[in-house]
Amino acid sequence: MQNMTRQLESYFSSEGELAHTLTNFQFRQPQQDFATHIAEALNAGDTLMVEAETGVGKTLGYLLPILLSNKKVLISSFTKALQDQIYHDDVNRLRHWVAPDKRVAVLKGRANYLCPEKLKRTQSDAFAAPNEVSEFAQVQAWSYRTKTGDLNELGTLRTRVRSSITLSAEECLGRACESFNQCPFYRARERALSSDVLVVNHQLLVASYLFDSDLRAVVESRDVQLLDEAEHLPELLQNAQFRLFDFIWLKDIVRDLATLVSEIGSEDPLLKRLLQQARQHEQGVARSFDGVFVSNATSFELNSKMVDLLDRSEAMLSEFARTLNPRRQQSRLMSQLLKACAERAAQLQILAGDIENGDQAVWGQQEFDGLVVYGAPSADKELPRFVELDATPKIFVSATLSLGGSFDFFCRRISRQEIRGVSIAGSFNYRSQVLGYRPQMVLSPEEDHYTTALLRQVFNVLPKKTLMLFTSHRALAEAHRYLVDKKRTSLYLQGDASAQDLIKAFSREDAGILMGTRGFWQGIDIKGSGVQCLLIDKLPFRSLDDRLLVAGSGESAPGDQIFAEFLLPDCALRLRQGFGRLIRSEDAQGLFIMGDQRFWDSSYAGFLQQALPEFSWTTDKEAADKFLRADA
Q1: Residues 125, 132: Cα–Cα separation, whole Å
Q2: Which of 302, 371, 600, 624 is most exposed, with minimal Cβ within 10 Å?
């Protein structure tokens, strides 16, 4: 370990190798301290939590000791954007200087890769909309050029097009597939197995443990896991553990039946009837969400409705299987569809039986790709936490893991055992770099037109470049309507384009307002002409109506206990994450506007205030304006 420490000191020093090879590299003692803690954990095989404040330089700080170690390491990030950045920009560039013989690979979930077999089966006339037909033609042309089959090379694809060229683990035939040797996913998997450093994302990591044995074999081949943006892992794991079933497969059955009708059954009334029946059932599933899976419905009502929906789905699939069985030799697609219907019918039958027996309380949520069924385990069944999924040592890294110097909240969510935590302070001087502004609000956050009232209060305080973070899409829309009427500056609204495109456009301009909800509270970095002001409309509390939240906290826990043990610390961490968007460099200054008066007036105000760094507050607009002019 002493040799590793000396190597790190040599690389990180102001006259070291990094200073001579990396543009704009500056020696930062916190970064070297962070790297030393990572190196010690790698060497000892320890599980560790390391919190490093914004500006420490985490990515370089953990990549260097990983490349210098003799361990096979998995690096996981929350976002695919950071995953691509780590792989394409950071680790490969550093590897050439530090460890050119190290093999580095990237792996994503199956849904990120083209399925050549499914592409061959899909016809352009399977799409009704002209833009879908055009996009599918682009996919076909790209399929001949791509070396990786990673669909992210194409940017954002429409849901219907993407689902027509990707497969789940359940649907994949593996080595039995005619296109196995050309499969981008399995090629990526082989590169991953032979790599020294493997870069994945949290969604893949969780799926590998719960759903996909092919992925799990890759994950468990590592000596150590380093988990960046680690604060997201507990929620991702819980949601995946509670997720029982979805109806996304209905789209595939409709598409495959449409293909069969087009290819071999245009005059076959039986196939046409099955296609019509599948389409009607797909519409019925979507309609069944309305008024059924609501937050105030009783468990008995939800379970009864869900069993009825599962029974009807199982009956339809069983009928399809009986009808297709005599025709299974007509085409390979017919045989595959028969197999899929039979397997899904069996799954639904088992799930319906479990619900009827009272083994699980279930509910449904309509998500962007269809109805998803969740189920909470019985009170006496504890689900494993992330550390307990296997014996691999894990290093959890983030800018926001602790509250008031304590790692207890995060630690409880990932392990039943205590884990050592280390905090690395950054070099930002928040007392001189930040001024807080408290608007004098009359309306409470629950009242109508609160967002409009807040913006009226602060509008004349806003500088040229402002980031506004909202806790709901409704508040975002209300704010957008108000600011559009003002016609004072360019607005960059979440949803108008991809997050990356919006941030790039905002960064290029001298003036503008960037507006977003939860996805913008963390993981975005405004480079170039940065954020001069951050406005947060409300405290980011989750709702007690959130069934996943209540199930994860224990159905029997009273509301005040859930608030104290989960909602409040969760809010404090989200607030820290949002605040972290403001100051991104040592020479930056910014105004922080908190619209929610509960931050000062509630019984828990002190707890939330301790979650943020120390800086001064004002209610004086002139003082705020003077602070901003000093940075101009």
Answers
A1: 10
A2: 600
